[in-house]
Specification:
Spore Coat Polysaccharide Biosynthesis Protein SpsA, Chain A, 9 helices, 245 residues, alpha/beta
Length: 245
């Protein structure tokens, strides 16, 4: 699959300390293997070939683990790395920095963004096939009803009507699931207007929604995340992961 996947893995993971005091979250063990192993395997099983890890705190440990265990060869992936540098740019800023580095390359204008603490077991090709080429961003949503985290999306008749992570309403029954598709033009347009270096992906989504170029796709399988001790334990005990171990 030609579409490149960016994995955001630069956070400090303060909620998981002391587990992450000297260790990046993406290397926490789940089923006797670091979490990044499971993420890369899931991408390979879905046919992806190119992955870029956007790293920050202790990112060199992630790169060393992947190289030492020859995961590129094992999963038939081309894996590249981009480090945050001295200034934290936020999730959106980190993605924009990656796009700037790829400028002029033969990379596809469409790309996928995942979070480095999310395990999303799904047929990704179905999501990609649903993409409306007139839209510059696609957000996957799940009817959460505040079950696993606070719902933040109003999704009706196949459309995202509201997305807001700060101002919650009773109408919000869905949550952003974590498999995101973008066209580089939405980032270029956002930057041209706001001239921000540090920003969050949520701002790009809201910009796309405001400009009527955000597509929604509803998935029917829950997400797992390792951003908290509870989430980490739930993934360890999950049927989805155990089937692959």
């Amino acid at each position: 699959m030609k579409v490149k996947v960016l994995i955001l893995a630069g956070g400090l993971a303060t909620r998981l300390r002391p587990l992450t005091t000297n260790y990046p979250k993406i290397l926490l063990e789940v089923g006797d293997r670091p979490f990044v192993y499971h993420q890369l395997r899931l991408l390979a099983l879905n046919g992806f070939k190119r992955v870029e890890l956007l790293l920050g705190f202790k990112g060199e440990l992630v790169e060393s683990y992947i190289r030492d265990n020859e995961l590129e060869k094992l999963f038939n992936l081309k894996i590249t790395y981009l480090y945050d540098g001295p200034k934290l740019l936020g999730t959106g800023g980190a993605v924009k920095r990656s796009l700037d580095r790829d400028k002029g390359s033969d990379s596809s204008d469409m790309f996928v963004v995942l979070y480095g603490d999310s395990y999303l077991d799904y047929d990704y090709q179905k999501i990609l096939n649903s993409l409306d080429k007139s839209c510059l961003a696609l957000m996957t949503v799940y009817k959460n009803d505040d079950s696993f985290d606070s719902s933040n999306v109003v999704f009706k008749d196949g459309e995202i009507l509201v997305y807001d992570k700060k101002n919650k309403t009773q109408e919000m029954k869905h949550i952003d699931w974590g498999f995101n598709i973008f066209h580089r033009d939405i980032f270029l347009s956002f930057h041209e207007i706001y001239q921000k270096e540090i920003f969050d992906l949520s701002e790009v989504f809201q910009f796309a929604l405001k400009n009527n170029c955000l597509q929604g796709y509803e998935v029917n399988k829950r997400f797992y995340e390792i951003g908290s001790n509870q989430g980490l334990q739930e993934l360890k005990e999950s049927k989805e992961l155990k089937e692959l171990l």
